[in-house]
Write a structure and sequence with these properties.
With 127 residues, the chain is mainly alpha-helical. It is built from 7 helices and no strands.
Length: 127
């Protein structure tokens, strides 16, 4: 896909701007990651439900607190799940964004994991 096509598909998030005083990681999070997370939100939920099904988790029987903890634990410890979720996002980066991502990969992955945990906890705990 062309760069313009990738960027035009991203949702606009009002009041989400980068500031000059932000670090490069923060700017990347605001300008690139958050719109992509919003764009692919439904896919993340589907992937996580599939993950639960594969592990035969009885989600309905888990308490609210147990659901929160399970999501956090899964995203922090399951390398395969992390790679699937990360791969979904990386495929939607422009060439320039991919190069920028690689310059700060460890920090971006940490931020992305935190954002995904929050997003899935907000959506999956009540279902």
């Amino acid at each position: 896909m062309q760069k313009l096509d990738l960027l035009s598909l991203r949702p606009d998030i009002p009041n989400l701007h980068s500031r000059p005083d932000q670090s490069g990681e923060e700017q990347f999070q605001q300008v690139v990651l958050r719109p992509l997370l919003k764009l692919h939100n439904d896919r993340f939920v589907v992937l996580f439900r599939h993950y639960l099904h594969q592990r035969k988790q009885e989600w309905d029987k888990k308490s609210h607190k147990a659901r929160l903890a399970y999501i956090e634990h899964a995203l922090k410890t399951d390398q395969r799940l992390q790679e699937r979720l990360l791969g979904l996002l990386l495929g939607w980066l422009t060439d320039e964004e991919v190069e920028r991502y690689f310059t700060m990969e460890k920090e971006i992955n940490r931020r992305l994991r935190t954002l995904l945990i929050q997003r899935l906890q907000d959506q999956m705990v009540l279902t």
